[in-house]
Structure formats: structure tokens, C-alpha cells
Recover the amino acids of this structure.
């Protein structure tokens, strides 16, 4: 078996490592966190609020990614790391509870923005400490951990703390700056020291978080019709929304995921680490963000179709919600295009054109009934999945790799 126990009480994972039940348990708290991000946007669907929700999502994504990397080199079901994961789950659950108030703190109780920042800092600190303990003889990793703490954790935490004392655009800009520095710091620290021991585990972990995001889109539709009678129109809209989620699933797992995993497995050392950082840590965020944005639009469509007392079947979506329905798909497609380009070097024309068209069609959503917009989007994306067929993703990726 490709693992060993070290003196810190952790179990090192080898190249045959797969996702453990402990990691599936860990992901449960992020199901709630992503749901809360959608709720944050739905409560006040404005451009500023959507931008703030994407900042919150980027910070939550960093919390998840930290332990996806750590779980690839240390078994999450070992005594020491599992105890850490449970603590992190408790902290992230607190973060999730305060997400709806993070930009509009309600009177009474603790400060939601400050509590969010302190918990975020606790997760990042626990990650660095756990990595440090797990690698007593790895000088390169420990040097990278020190650089990460100085460049990618400490400066953003300062901006987040300052921002928590403000509200409105000041808070938004300070937190945006923190995210930019945080993500940019990973490039400055470099790939040296980080390890991807098991490509299968790493790819599977990220596939699971995509499924979690897709599951949240289905939950959002259910929340949208909660408390209203089930009608033929509701069933039709729900079926269209499910078709849209299925098309996103097929696009990822049938057209993107396999090629990326095969490419990752074919690389070694720092080259593998850089690929994992680019394709999984960075380029999977637009996929998750796109699904969350689309979920907002799907939720509002189902709500309008169900609430016949306030909306008619001919009522379109309005404002940022109208854009989020197609815009979320556009963000997803452009993220997928970037993954194909980084994986195989091919020009992802179909995905790129589809993404741009989806982003640009947000204005048209406000001109047609909400249900019609959802149906057309679902059919259009399903058609795109078939157009993006041909050779399987692994064959394309391996063919490009062998020819380079």
C-alpha cells in the first residue's frame, strides 16, 4: 500500500491514493457554504452584491483548495489530519452562517464581516501548520510555506481585517484587493515544494466539488418554488433547469475532466504542480462561479413561474438576474475553454464562441418570458455539448502532448 505513517501521526499518501470518505464528509460543509453564496446574491440581486458574492466565493474556494492539496499528500482519514478537518469544518460552518450578512451586518450579535475574516484566517493558518507538521524533512516545501505565509496570507488578511470595519464599496474594494494579492501570491511563491502525489485523487477531488456546485443549482430551483403549488409550468421549468444542469455536467465530465486528468498524470515534478495549480486551483474557480451565477437565474425563473400571484408566465427576468442566467453559463464555458487550451494547446473555438455568445445574450433574456429563456438556454447548451464532440478528451490531450 502506497502510504506510510510519519512521526507527526499523519499518513503520507502515495501515487495510488484516491478520495477518502473523510474528504467527502469534509465537503458537506461546503455544500452549505455555496448555497449561502447564492442566497447572498438572491437577497439583493444587484451588480455590487453579485461582485461581492464572487469575492466571498473566491475566498471560500481558497479554503477548499488548501485542503484538497494537503489531502493529496497526507491521508485525510488519518487521526491527525482528520481531527484538523473536523475543526476546519466547524470554522467554515461559522463562515457559512455569516455569509448572508457579510456585506450588510444586521444589528445585534457578533460582527459578521469580522467573524468571517477571523475564521478565514484560522483556516489558512491551520492549513499551513498542518502542511509544516506533515513535512519535517522537506526543506523545499517548508521554504515555500514560509513564502506563502508572508506573501499570500499575511497581506490579504490585513486588507480583509481593515475592510471588515467598513461597508459598501470601500469594503468591497479592500476585499477584492485581498483576493488579488492572495491569488497572485501563489504565482510569486512558485511551484517548488508543492507536490501532487496522486493525479487520480487530485482530479477526483475537483470533480466532486463541481458536482457539489451543480447540486446547489438543483437545490436553488427547489428553494425558488418552496411554498408554492406545483403546476404544469413549474414542472416544465424544473425539467428545463435539470436539463441545463445535466448539460453542464456532461460538458465537464465528458469533455474536460478526462483530458485534464490524463495530462496531469503524464507530467512530473514542478511541471505537474504548475499544471495542477493552473487548471485545477485557478481555472476550476470559473466553472464553480459560473454554476453559482446560473443557479441564481434558475432560482428566480422557478420562483416567477411558481408565484403566479405576482408574476405572469410572460414575465421576463430583469437586471443582473437576467444576465446571471446566461452569464453564468458563459463564465463556465470560457473557463472550460481555458482548461482545454492549457491542457492540450488546441484552440477551443466552440467553447470560446459559445461562452462569448452566452455572456452577450444576457440583455436578450430580459426581452422574453423567463421560462422561455431557460428552455432556450438548456437546449442551446445541450446542442453545444454535442458540437464539442469528436475524439474523446483523453485522446485529444495525449495526442497533443505526444506531438509537442
Amino acid at each position: 500500500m502506497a502510504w506510510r505513517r510519519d512521526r507527526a501521526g499523519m499518513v503520507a499518501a502515495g501515487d495510488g491514493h484516491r478520495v477518502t470518505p473523510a474528504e467527502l464528509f469534509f465537503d458537506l460543509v461546503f455544500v452549505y457554504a455555496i448555497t449561502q453564496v447564492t442566497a447572498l446574491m438572491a437577497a439583493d440581486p444587484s451588480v455590487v452584491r453579485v461582485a461581492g458574492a464572487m469575492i466571498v466565493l473566491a475566498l471560500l474556494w481558497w479554503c477548499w483548495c488548501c485542503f484538497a492539496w494537503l489531502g493529496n499528500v497526507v491521508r485525510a482519514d488519518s487521526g491527525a489530519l482528520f481531527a484538523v478537518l473536523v475543526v476546519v469544518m466547524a470554522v467554515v460552518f461559522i463562515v457559512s452562517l455569516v455569509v448572508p450578512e457579510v456585506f450588510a451586518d444586521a444589528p445585534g450579535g457578533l460582527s459578521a464581516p469580522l467573524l468571517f475574516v477571523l475564521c478565514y484566517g484560522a483556516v489558512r493558518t491551520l492549513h499551513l501548520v498542518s502542511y509544516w507538521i506533515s513535512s519535517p524533512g522537506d526543506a523545499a516545501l517548508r521554504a515555500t510555506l514560509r513564502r506563502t505565509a508572508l506573501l499570500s496570507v499575511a497581506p490579504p488578511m490585513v486588507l480583509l481585517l481593515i475592510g471588515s470595519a467598513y461597508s459598501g464599496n470601500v469594503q468591497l474594494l479592500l476585499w477584492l484587493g485581498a483576493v488579488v494579492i492572495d491569488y497572485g501570491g501563489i504565482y510569486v511563491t512558485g511551484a517548488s515544494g508543492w507536490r501532487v502525489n496522486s493525479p487520480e485523487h487530485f482530479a477526483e477531488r475537483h470533480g466532486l466539488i463541481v458536482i457539489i456546485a451543480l447540486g446547489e443549482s438543483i437545490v436553488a430551483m427547489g428553494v425558488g418554488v418552496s411554498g408554492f403549488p406545483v403546476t404544469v409550468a413549474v414542472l416544465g421549468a424544473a425539467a428545463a433547469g435539470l436539463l441545463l444542469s445535466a448539460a453542464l455536467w456532461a460538458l465537464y465530465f465528458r469533455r474536460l475532466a478526462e483530458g485534464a486528468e490524463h495530462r496531469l498524470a503524464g507530467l512530473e515534478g514542478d511541471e505537474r504542480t504548475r499544471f495542477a495549480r493552473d487548471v485545477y486551483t485557478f481555472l476550476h474557480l470559473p466553472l464553480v462561479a459560473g454554476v453559482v451565477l446560473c443557479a441564481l437565474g434558475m432560482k428566480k425563473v422557478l420562483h416567477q413561474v411558481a408565484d403566479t400571484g405576482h408574476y405572469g408566465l410572460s414575465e421576463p427576468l430583469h437586471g443582473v438576474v437576467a444576465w446571471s442566467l446566461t452569464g453564468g453559463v458563459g463564465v463556465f464555458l470560457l473557463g472550460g475553454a481555458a482548461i482545454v487550451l492549457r491542457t492540450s494547446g488546441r484552440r477551443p473555438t466552440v467553447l470560446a464562441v459559445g461562452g462569448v455568445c452566452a455572456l452577450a445574450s444576457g440583455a436578450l433574456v430580459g426581452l422574453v418570458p423567463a421560462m422561455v429563456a431557460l428552455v432556450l438556454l438548456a437546449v442551446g447548451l445541450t446542442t453545444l455539448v454535442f458540437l464539442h464532440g469528436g475524439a474523446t478528451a483523453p485522446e485529444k490531450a495525449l495526442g497533443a502532448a505526444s506531438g509537442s
